[in-house]
Design goal:
The protein has 101 residues and is of the alpha/beta class. The chain has 3 helices and 5 strands. Helix 1 packs parallel to helix 2. It starts with a strand and ends with a strand.
Length: 101
């Protein structure tokens, strides 16, 4: 997994690429270091270019969300393809995150 960070008006855009697997943990830990100093209080996680996410990846998103909440940052998921959206639906991510298309 790779990601890019962009500032878009009031939001921080996080664009994910590839697959979120257990090997992505270091990248998530790196991403979490930006939360405490973020001027943007809404981060849109663009998952359009994700090919796959497994249960470990879902857990990492939950951990990212918990860290974001501690720093008053809201996370929004955007653009999930069919496979990723199905994982979000099965895991009831709509109860933890705002999900937009």
């Amino acid at each position: 997994m790779e990601y890019s960070l962009l500032n878009r008006d009031q939001d921080k855009q996080v664009i994910f690429y590839g697959n979120i697997l257990p090997s992505s943990r270091d990248k998530f830990l790196e991403l979490m270091t930006y939360l405490p100093t973020s001027e943007q209080k809404r981060w849109v996680l663009q998952v359009d270019d994700l090919d796959y996410i497994d249960s470990a990846g879902l857990g990492m998103l939950i951990e990212l969300n918990e860290t974001a909440q501690k720093h008053d940052v809201a996370l929004v998921l955007s653009g999930a393809n069919t496979v990723v959206k199905r994982m979000f639906d099965l895991s009831r991510f709509n109860e933890l995150f705002e999900i937009i298309d």
